Amino acid sequence: MAGIGKSTLVNNVYKNEGSNFDCRAWVSISQSYKLEDVWKKMLTDLVGKDKKAFDPGTMDSAELRVQLTKTLDKKRYLIILDDVWTADVLFRIKEVLVDNGLGSRVIITTRTEEVASIAEDSCKIKVEPLGDHDSWHVFCRKAFPKVENHICPPELHQCGKNIVEKCDGLPLALVAIGSVLSLRPKNVDEWKLFYDQLIWELHSNENLNHVEKIINLSYKYLPDYLKNCFLYCAMFPEDYLIHRKRLIRLWIAEGFIEQKGTCSLEDIAESYLRELVRRSMLHVAHRNSFGRIKCIRMHDLVRELAIFQSKREGFSTTYDGNNEAMLVGSDSRRVAVLQCSKGIPSNIDASRLRTFITFDTSRASSLWYSSISSKPKYLTVLDLSGLPIETIPSSIGELFNLRLLCLDDTKVLPKSITKLQNLQTLSIENAQLVKFPEGFSKLKKLRHLLVSRLHDVTYNSFKVCEAIEPFKGLWSLIELQTLWTIKASEVFVAKLGNLSQLRSLIISDVRSNYCAQLCGSLSKMCQLSALIIEACNEDELLQLDDLTFPNPLQILTLAGRLSEGTLTSPFFLNHGNGLLRLMLHYSQLSESSVTHLSKLSNLTELSLVRAYTGQELYFQADWFLNLKELYLMNLPHLNQIRIQKGALASLERVNMHCLPELREVPVGFRHLESLNTVTFVDMHPDFASSMQRYTYGTTA
Q1: What CA–CA distance (Å, rounded) separates 364 from 636?
Q2: E-assigned strand segments in 109-169
């Protein structure tokens, strides 16, 4: 049964028990799945941060099969196959699953008896609807989130019970209805009116199932400014992980976000996203270490409802070449291509398009692009990420209304792009771009410029990504909020301060003699919250003792050798408590430096990568009380870690990678009561036996 909570239950198992396995993967299986994509997702999850010398995204089916079998052969693994629709799908996916006798587990969720019948009776769990008591409890937690013990007022009790009864014990329906009522006036007349609307909804729309009818009522109660934002999320594939930043930039480009006072469009859009989450129309898939939404998902039933409404309102077309029922209409002005195995449907009028997004990277999908390269004069969003396009035609410069252009993984940027003077976001990540075309500084409305190319998939070298040379006049683009990844030059560093609206900056190839001027320019940036500074090589000294910012910095990454006074500089002493995430790479810190880092009391994430030269790390009581994630990687001399009781009290995740001299589990590891995810990779050979002793309670 849909909406009964199968995936939620399994997700709890995945989170709570995942650390007991060597590797794990969660793969959602859509009705229009491609086996190759399933295996790519599986391999990507299984490898995780343990980067090897291969990229799953570039492999074909044969290579994926070999690599998956090799990866799983000697490991205890946990794999979730979520929402499997047919037995045939399951049999095809299982071809790579190795029964290695190490206690591995594969968990499947399904709505169909056909798939469930494959499992032995002792291995099947049928999730039943909630009983009356539990249904009422779930509803009240959502409807009265700020009331002590979530108690329903007596005058609303009977009406509330009537509403809950219509949800048939389905958690998704209860959560949706409770979320709507939490935002409505708490009086009997309002709730009776809502109940009457619910009854009408349940007797209407025969094309919707029971849960979708209830969600449809939630949609009707959305404020007008949220409805387009909600429907837009249905253009992404089923179970797709939607990144916050990407979604917000798309909403802004579409014109869905209205300016309010002095708040930026990005801040307003993020508040819309939080409101959709609060109304249970979107689900938070990941938050970062300090609680900010990182990725969201749309429940498949909610997405089906959104597609239904999109069809009714002519909002968008979601085209899937393997599932013609997904084709919404020919008069839509927004098109998302999920798969394109059967070519381009002739009933799509390219001249009317406002939005074109492709998630399919096949050659067939490339043909779509050739048909819309210049026809749609009103196109505002063009996202061609991953398409195998060798050359972008110059006709792209005729799309004068374009606000967002994504050409990730493409190769050449035509000079005509400088005509796109309404462009707000340009993403050309992982592209073969050597330099910007002349005249690029004409794009005065640019807010987000994302340029980088990953050239080390193993993440083992100092330079993982390749930056691009700054173009003449870059410093005149004063509306820029995001700038990734630009090489430092003497001229650019001196004029960087002109970009006072920057919120996120990645600057690489910094030389020691640039540092004084760089600090001066950064001191003029009132909005900066995330900064990455990379030296030109691992031995170059970053002299950042004079680093200051007008407002607290939240995220800081420093890659390169740090001068001795950096961690005792005014920034770290006086404003370091604003830092929430700190990543230090190749810093060559001594043992005394950790004491200085401990003063950063609000850190939620700390990463040391080839950053520490000492042999011992000692975490004293009351150090790093808010830290939730700790990453220690490539520390060749570290041979002991000691954790005093009271240190790292909030730590939830630990990742230790390539610590060749660490033979024993950290002393005091048992003090970490909040820990739920632990990863050890490429450790000393003796570490495994130490871990086994720890597991059975004889050490640490």
Answers
A1: 48
A2: none
Bridge partners (DSSP) of residue 287 are 293
Q: Which of 75-79, 314-318, 336-340 has the lowest mean pLDDT?
A: 336-340
Instruction: Give the C-alpha separation, 566 to 545, whole Å.
Output: 5
pLDDT of residue 330: 54
Helices (H), 509-655: 515-522, 570, 591-597
Residue type, 602: N
Provide CB contacts within 8 A for 182, sequence distance 6+: 142, 143, 144, 145
Torsion angles phi and psi, residue 579, rounded to 5: -70, 135
Separation CA 591–CA 614 (nearest Å): 5
- Tokens read off for 89: 């799908």
Residues in CB range of 37: below 8 A, 6 or more apart: none
3-state secondary structure of 143: helix
pLDDT of residue 414: 83
Neighbouring C-beta atoms of residue 308, cutoff 10 Å: 19
Q: What percent of the chain has pLDDT over 90?
A: 62
Give, in degrees to the nearest 5, the angle at Cα 631 between 628 and 636: 150
Whole-angstrom Cα distance, residue 546 to residue 565?
10
pLDDT in tens, 288-323: 999 999 999 999 899 999 999 998 888 998 877 654
With CA atoms as reference, report the closest residue to 589 among 614, 555, 619, 620: 614
Alpha helix stretches (DSSP H) within 150-243: 157-165, 171-182, 188-202, 210-220, 224-232
Cβ–Cβ < 8 Å for 593, 566: no
Residue 103: the pLDDT is 92
Cβ atoms of 372 and 350 within 8 Å: the answer is yes
Q: What's the full length of the chain, in residues?
A: 700
Q: Residue 211: what residue type? A: V
pLDDT at 362 over 90: no
Instruction: List, in order, residues 6 or more apart from 261 with CB less than 8 Å away.
Output: none
Residue 327 is predicted with a pLDDT of 46
How far apart are the C-alpha atoms of 668 and 365, rounded to whole Å?
Answer: 55
Q: What is the C-alpha separation between 350 and 346, in angstroms, rounded?
A: 10
Integer Cα distance of 84 and 98 in angstroms? 19
Give 435-469 pLDDT, tens digit per residue.
788 899 999 999 999 998 777 666 678 888 888 89
